Amino acid sequence: MPIYHKLGKIPQKRHTQFEKPNGGLYYEQLFGTIGFDGMSSLSYHVHRPTQVKEIGKALDVSPKIAVEKNITSRKFIGFDVAPKDDFLEAREPLLVNNDVHVGLAAPRKSLTNYFYKNADADEMLFIHKGSGTLKTFLGNIPFEYGDYLIIPRGMIYQIEFDTEDNRILYAESFHPIYTPKRYRNWFGQLLEHSPFCERDYKLPQDLQTFDEKGEFLMKIKKQGMLHQLVYATHPFDVIGWDGYNFPYGFSIHNFEPITGRVHQPPPVHQTFETGAFVVCSFCPRLYDYHPKAIPAPYNHSNIDSDEVLYYVDGDFMSRTGIGPGYISLHPAGIPHGPHPGTYEGSIGKKETEELAVMIDTFKPLKVTENALKIDDGKYYKSWLE
Ligand SMILES: [Fe+2]
Question: pTM for this one?
Answer without folding.
Answer: 0.97
